[in-house]
Amino acid sequence: MRWRLDSWMRNMRRGQSLVEFALAATVLLLLLSGVLDLGRMYMAWVAIQDAAGEGALYAAMNPRCISAADGPMCASPNNAYDRTFIAIRQTPGTPLDPYRVTITITPNDPNQICFGTPITVSTTYSFTMITPLLRGMFSSDITLRAYAVQRALNNGAASCP
């Protein structure tokens, strides 16, 4: 009789360990997926920050070509908007949807830019989390914002002093 009782108690302990492992593994997997989502969000923010810097640098060096509408010499990709868009699209290892990015350049009129004028390129990205728990805690889309400022290195307008 004693032998059966010992065997039964041993089997119960194995079952208890399995339940404890299932509970702990669930919590650990939720934490891991949340960390992965936050890592993806940080990578997306770094990508739009780098793209804003690329666009601001191009606008500072070529202040007459802010957008493609500024003349035939500013056709794609020779303008700040397109350079920012291309930098987002070509970021290695970041699966960003470039069509969910909004690019704003101020001032966007080359006639308002003289040597030393600060040019700001702002990018916003609508980031979607893949973890259902985090998606429930926050909104479905999180807006990431980044900007870069460069001073114009040339005159954008002929009327500059």
Give the helices and strands, then pairings:
Layout: H1 2-61, H2 80-89, E1 101-106, E2 118-128, H3 132-137, E3 141-151
Antiparallel strand pairs: 1-2, 2-3
Structure explained in plain terms:
A three-stranded antiparallel beta sheet has the order 1-2-3. The longest helix is centred in the N-terminal third of the chain and has 60 residues, at 2-61. It is built from three helices and three strands. Helix content is 47%, strand content 17%. It has one domain (39-151). It has 161 residues and is α+β, with helices and mostly antiparallel strands. The radius of gyration is 27 Å and the shape is rod-shaped. Helix 1 runs antiparallel to helix 2 (80-89). The chain has helices at 2-61, 80-89, 132-137, and strands at residues 101-106, 118-128, 141-151.
Q: Number of helical runs?
A: 3
Indicate the structural class. Answer: alpha+beta
Beta-strand portion reads 15-25%
Q: Round the Cα radius of gyration to an integer and report it.
A: 27 Å
How would a textbook summarize the main sheet? 3 strands, antiparallel
The dominant shape is rod-shaped
Overall mean confidence score, pLDDT: 86
Amount of helix: 40-55%
Task: Report low-confidence residues grouped into runs of 5 or more.
Answer: none
Summarize the helix and strand pattern as letters: HHEEHE
Alpha carbon gap, first and last residue: 105 Å
- Please provide the count of β strands: 3
Number of domains: 1
Identify the strand order in the major beta sheet. 1-2-3
